[in-house]
Amino acid sequence: MDKVKPVIVLALIAALISGLVIVVYNATYVDTSNIVTDKQAAAVTEIYGGTKDDYEVVPAEKWQDMFSEGDLSKITKVIKNKDGSLAFEAVVKGYKNGYDIMVGVKDGKVAGVSVVSVGEETPGLGTKTNDPAFLDLFKGKSGEVVIVKNKSNPADNEVNGVTSATFSSKGVASAVNIALKAYEKCGGEFK
Fold first, then answer.
1. Where are the chain's structural domains?
2. Total-model pTM
3. What tens digit of pLDDT does each residue of 16-43 get?
4. Strand pairing class (75-81; 86-92)
5. CA angle centred on 41, ends 76 and 80, rounded to 5°
6. Most buried by CB count within 10 Å: which residue of 19, 76, 104, 138?
7. Three-class SS of residue 118?
8. Cβ(55)–Cβ(79) below 8 Å
9. Cβ neighbours of residue 44 under 8 Å, at least 6 residues apart?
10. Distances 44 to 28, 151, 154, 170 between C-alpha atoms, Å
C-alpha cells in the first residue's frame, strides 16, 4: 500500500491540474474564426483595394462542410468583398509546411494573390514567391494553374516558377488552384 499511495496522490494532482487548465482555457477562449486579422486585411486589401471595412468574413458554418474534403480542407478562411467577390485563405505546403496564401477570385478568375505568411520558406529563395511580380502572374488565370520552369511562352494555365524555389512556387499555385475549386464549388457566392 505504501508504494501505491504516492502514485494515487500524483494521479489526483495531475487530474486536478488538468481540470484547472480546461476551466481556464474555456473561460479565456476567444473564437477568432469570424475575425479578420491585420495580416489578412492587408492581404485582401492588396488584392482588391479598399479598406478593412469593405470586407466581411463568411462564417465558417457556411462553408466548412462544403470544403471539408481533399485540398479544399486547407482553406482556413473565406472573406467576402462588398462587391461580392471572394478571397480564400489556404495554408499549403511550399518547401516546408505552413505557407499561408490569400487568393482573390472574381467571376471565376484570379483577381490577385497575396502571401499572408511565408512560414518556414527559405529566406532569399522561397520567400521570393512573395514578390508582387511573381504573384501578378496568376491574375486572370482560371482552370488549373501549373508551374513551369523558364518557359519563354507559357500557356494560359502556366506560370513560370521562381528560380531555385520550385516547391514554394508550387505552393502558391496549389493555393490558387484550391481557391479556384472552392469558388466553383460554392457557385461564386455566399449569402
1. 1-30, 32-185
2. 0.78
3. 999 999 999 888 876 666 677 788 888 8
4. antiparallel
5. 65
6. 104
7. coil
8. yes
9. 36, 55, 79, 81, 87, 102, 104, 114
10. 29, 30, 27, 21
